[in-house]
Amino acid sequence: MNRMPDSHQDFDRHARQLQQQADAALSAATLARLRQARQQASTANAPSTWRRHRWWLATACSLLLAVPVALQFNTSTPPAAPVLASNGSDAGDDTLLLDESPELYLWLGSDNLAME
Prior knowledge:
mainly alpha
């Protein structure tokens, strides 16, 4: 039997010799069959076009679902102004502002306005 070599260089040389002996022992027909089997195995494991692109499709679908959700929960827009209750008249916003400030009418009616 073969004994194990003592150093790394001896081990490498011995492994190369054994590989060369094994390669020389194989016939050309056996090498051709092994090459063909290796090629068939490598093409069988190749991912199909669908499998390669499924991650892109999943990402696109997730994005399409995430955009409306993000827009729904977008809080950067200011809240709407509260609607003031009216007494049934359809007065515009300007009228409501003047109704809320009676001091404005007092200032307009005063005599100090004419002096300014």
